[in-house]
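Checklist before submission:
- one chain only
- standard amino acids only
- sequence pasted in full

Submission:
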Amino acid sequence: MEKQIIIESLFPEIANLFGDRMNIYYLQKCLPNAEFIDTNLTSEPAFVKKPVSMVYMGPMTESQQELIIHTLLPYKAAIQQLIENGCIFLLTGNAMEVFEAYIENEDGSRIEGLGIFPDVYAKRNMMARYNSLILGEYHGIRLVGFKAQFSHSYGDNQNQYFYKVIRGCGIHPGSLLEGLNKNNFFATYTVGPFLLLNPLFIKQLLILLGIKQPTLAYEDTIMAAYRKRLAEFEKEKLKYQ
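Returned file contents:
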């Protein structure tokens, strides 16, 4: 008997900017027999008591970041253990910053993060929104997406980045290393929604979930859209910041 796939989405009532909730809706189409759990801010995370296969969290407003950090802090040890055990995590947008050492405001004050990635921290500039396209590569897979953020991350992700940037910037301007990665933990500022834009990476996730020969919902359509977007993003005349 195949192991039941359980995917938990954290705080979808607020962590849902940029249409990234569609990441979960599309996974539901690809995995009709999987169990999907929505955990709100007033509920204990399912990963505390159930053997979840994957945890997802999308982008949120800056004020909501502090609320989510406060909510997840009692479960820090459980999260660290899940990461060590190879549970899949996918974080998009500024959800990544929740797991970093701290978030620094313009006045120098800090919001302490979960500290799961203690060598990386974020800095905000609410008067300078950063918008860009991004083109990168993860283990031979070209990735495309968008960035829309008031903050960047700094510190050392040299040995724990998600993917290499071909055009655009990584965790901050001047960096060519995007996001955070440890075992099956993937975090990126990239939005779009990220999964719908990158069907080849979805297949990698499905393999990690134990599906040996994954197929995608509406595969011909989503692959055609990906190939067209990739061709556009590879054109040098496009603006990347």
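Reviewer check: The first helix runs from residue 22 to 30.
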